[in-house]
Each structure stands twice: as C-alpha cells, then as structure tokens.
Amino acid sequence: MTFLAINLMDIDSLPSASGEPAGFAAMRDLAIMADEMGVDKIVLPEHVLISRQAHANREGFPYPVEASWFDPMVALGAIAAVTRNARLSTNVMIAPLRPAPLLAKQLATLDALSGGRLDAAFGVGWQREEYDAAERAFEGRFGTMDEQIAACRALWAGGDAQFVGKKVSFDDAWSMPQPVQGAALPIYLGLALTPRGVQRVVTLADGWQAPPMPAAEFADAVATITDAAGTKPMHFTGALSIHPRGTVMSAVDDPFAQAAGLWQAGAHTVIAHPRHFCESMADVERYLTDLVAQREATAVTDS
To answer: Model pTM greater than 0.90?
Structure first.
C-alpha cells in the first residue's frame, strides 16, 4: 500500500491575485485539486492557541506565531462537502483538550458528513499554556487520552453505551449520529516511541503517525512497533520535512526523494506539506503532480 497525503496548514497564507493572503479559499481549492488528482488523504494539524513564549522556546517550530490554525473539525467538515474520494484526517488533534463525549461526537459527525472517510490522529501537545487556557489538566494528559480512546470506541459502538474510567464515566449514553465506520473508525497516535509510547500505539490504536525523520530512523521505528504489535496490523504514516518559512533547504530536503525513501522504509502513507515548497497555486499543482507520479513509481517498484 502506497498512499499520499497533503497537509493544508498555512496554505491560506499563499498570496491571492490581489497580493493579500488567499485565506480559507486557497485551502478549499487545494483540497478540490488534490481530490481530483488522486491524492489519497487531506490532513490538518491543530493548536487551539499558541503561546508566544512557548513558540519561542520550541526550536525549529515551522510555523510563524501568527499562522492560522483552523479548527480541524470545522475546516475538514467544509472540505468534506467539496471532495469525494480523499480521506480526511487530523494531524494531529490534541485530544485531551476536549471532553471525551464531545470528541466522540465531533469525530462521528465528521465521519458521517464525509461518508465514512475520516481517520483520527491523536496526540497530547506540548504547551502547558494551551491546557491552562482550556481549563484542562496538563499533567496526566496521556492517561486522559487513553480513556478518551476507550470512551470514543464505546460511544461509536451504538446503542446505550457504558464506560467507567478514572476521568470519564457514563452509563445508558446514546451518542448520535454514529460514525459510518462505527467503532472501527481508525485512530492513529502521534507519540514519541518511548516504551510506554510503543505500548499505547499497539494496544490502543490502529497505527503510528510519525513526525518528519530520516527514512532509516523511520524504518527502525516501524520494526519496533511491528515487533511489539505481533499479529495486529498497523498503519504507518511518515511525513516530509518541514522548515520555517524563509529558511534555505538543502539537497537532503528534496521532497520526492524523501517520499520515496519513507515509502520504501515501510510507510503506508506519506504526508507532504506544499506550503513549504510552493509560493503559488501553480507551484502547488506541479508539486502534487510530481508527488503523485513518485507514489505511482514507488508502488510499481514495490509490487
């Protein structure tokens, strides 16, 4: 399996005909273009807010502090209405910022709106300020996410759901609409592969969503998770490198060579970020055309 995904983040900052940022219209237009070109998945990351101090402390953070972080549930809902084939995904959603029943409801709604095209990718974030502002506990956020996954699965199974956990419990709970994919709606985790992280991926999720990394490192991670998962199938998602806008990229940042390397290293899906290589929608079209060709060439080689 060889799949290509695109990250819409920061596409809204592309200049329009007037020279002003194009806004969400550029994201919508790119989603339509990608869907028509055969791109397999469209993704959006999440931050509810950005602390300027946390941004300054996060070395190499690729987005400016004033970048627009469209809520992925709302934005992907709009994109679901103008696409037909591409799957949709968070990349990643900071799950513990939401109460579990709300998280389950939002994801089920988006899956229903898209006709069963949603993949959910969760993480826990890194900004304490984001949790404080949302009145959510920063400490224990991993455990919160664990319970959220179990609670979502219970609510997505249909009927009157019951769940008892340390942080969330409910009984005789009906959550409608149900996801088209039901309790099998895929959940991927974007976590560092500490021993506990590996355990979470293989026991709670359907796959691993990796940050940008060299193909050799990715291959080692795939082997680690595969060994831990045993007979359970896992979906592996790699990501092309992302650099702060305005920085000079070297030959090792070539996106087409990176994509080929990640697919060959065991990635089922590779996420590309057009904004860091393109300055216009014409650039984006050429970029996606070449990536789709690279996906097809890799698939032929693998077969």
So the answer is: yes
